[in-house]
Amino acid sequence: MYVIIAVMIIATRYKIELVEGTELFKIRNLNAPLCPNCGSLCSGYDNRLRRVIGDDGQVVVYQLRRLRCPVCDALHIELPDFIRTRKRYAGSVIDDVLNGRGDCCPADDRTMRRWKHENRPPETSGFFDADMIKLNYSQKNRGGQKENAEEE
């Protein structure tokens, strides 16, 4: 049996509850979790822990649900919208750095540079630009030679 691991299910309406006797927070989605692949209702599979570093540098541990789709058999993790996929820092910390407000960010400089690099718009390569200049130059020269030949 093969298990398909697909995209995350992002929860936008949720409740955060402290698990009694621990420093663990549980996320409860208020919407029905639907499979992003086929649209059917997912059921609970198990839980996993996720550590998130906040604005103040404190680590908060969240218990996230893993869900299984009964139709396509895919596993999904249910993430609240303040946690970014594959990132250790809270979404607000990353947004502050990307918007230039990361003066006292708990992340190191290399991490902040990587976030900026990952989120910048794509650039055209220098090779492409040089080829376009050569093409334009050669077209201009060809046109100029024809005009000079016609004048004679």
Largest sheet composition: 7 strands, mixed
Task: State the share of residues found in helices, binned by percent.
Answer: 25-40%
Strand content: 25-35%
Please report the distance between the alpha carbons of the first and last residues: 80 Å
Radius of gyration, taken over Cα atoms and rounded to an integer in Å: 26 Å
Shape, principal axes of CA atoms: globular
Question: In total, how many beta strands?
Answer: 7
Tally of helical runs: 3
Order of helices and strands: EEEEEEEHHH
Give the structural class: alpha/beta
Poorly predicted ranges: 124-137, 146-152
Q: Please, what is the average pLDDT? A: 79
Structure explained in plain terms:
The chain is of the alpha/beta class and 152 residues long. The chain has a domain at 4-89. Helix content is 29%, strand content 29%. The chain has 3 helices and 7 strands, in the order βββββββααα. It has helices at 91-98, 109-118, 126-151; strands at 4-5, 9-11, 14-18, 24-29, 43-53, 59-68, 74-80. Strands 1, 2, 3, 4, 5, 6 and 7 form a 7-stranded mixed beta sheet that branches. β5 (43-53) and β6 (59-68) form a beta hairpin. The N and C termini lie far apart (80 Å).
